[in-house]
Amino acid sequence: MDRADIPKKRCPYCNSEAKLDFAIWGRPYFRCGSCDLMYRGDLQVELKRDLFRHFEREYFSEYAHDQLSGSRNQIYTHILDVIEKETAVGRILDVGCGCGFFLKEAKDRGWNMEGVEPSKESVDYATILLGGNFVHAGTLQDFPALGEFDVVTLIDALGFSSTPWSDIERIRTLLKPGGLLFIRCSNSFLHAFLFKISIRLMMDSFVSELVVFHKYPLTPRFILRLLRDYGFSNVNIRNAKPSGGGLPLRFLKSAISIIANSLYYLSRRRIIIGPSLEVMERKP
């Protein structure tokens, strides 16, 4: 895809100039020079209308296999371990909860849990798994919350949102004062860097199988800007625990994690190059 064929766009978040950054799988990804938002340029015309319909109908068949295989269970355990070091067991909401396995782990630990999920098939699965109607079928914007939550989690979900900033604004109203927000997402700063380097080395066909780009690929810089804009002033962003997979992939992820964490601490927490990010912040 020739950059000259694609016009410059306005950033959907801050309205600054955004330029084509790269193209992968036939999709152009733009990047804002001001706030560092990355987004799929071909989704902007019918983004809100079509995204919900896509996840409502197709999420289960396209993405649920990772949850059903059990490969993500260690991530859910780790996340709850991290959360419980910061706050007492209480009321928790998981946004984009999928089939409910994270909520099942939370329930087993004594949490009063709820979830919201657009995929009808995933909601049906979660209802059976959790033994009741703990998951709302729909989006965060129409979630009928009763009371406030001690913790709200977004586990690999924020990048799929039609407007991530609207979800952060809504979460701020759902959290109790002092409540904890936890986000896990791919580190698109690293994924974009690796993909662009692979093009120069003519290895993009191999690397494109490893990198992850959702509707909104999230970078540490944009997450920091977004949360500060919505009143979260003491944002903690760090490299996330590697996810599961086969033995070769686990070994590779562990090696990358060791390197990324070494740079993170040697740089006094300024260099964040892990494949995934963990973000924690309390509502003021």
Keywords:
284 residues; alpha/beta; Rossmann fold; 10 helices
Summarize the structure.
This protein has 284 residues and is an alpha/beta fold.
Could you characterize the architecture of this molecule?
The protein has helices at residues 47-63, 65-68, 73-86, 101-108, 120-130, 164-174, 188-200, 204-207, 220-229, 247-266; strands at residues 9-10, 17-24, 27-32, 38-40, 91-95, 112-117, 135-137, 149-155, 175-186, 236-239, 276-282. It is α/β, with parallel strands linked by helices and 284 residues long. The chain has one domain (52-186, 218-282): Rossmann fold (3-Layer(aba) Sandwich). A hairpin with a 6-residue loop joins strand 1 (9-10) and strand 2 (17-24). Helix 3 (73-86) crosses helix 4 (101-108). It is globular, with a radius of gyration of 19 Å.
Fold topology:
Blueprint: E1 9-10, E2 17-24, E3 27-32, E4 38-40, H1 47-63, H2 65-68, H3 73-86, E5 91-95, H4 101-108, E6 112-117, H5 120-130, E7 135-137, E8 149-155, H6 164-174, E9 175-186, H7 188-200, H8 204-207, H9 220-229, E10 236-239, H10 247-266, E11 276-282
Helix pairs in contact: 3-4
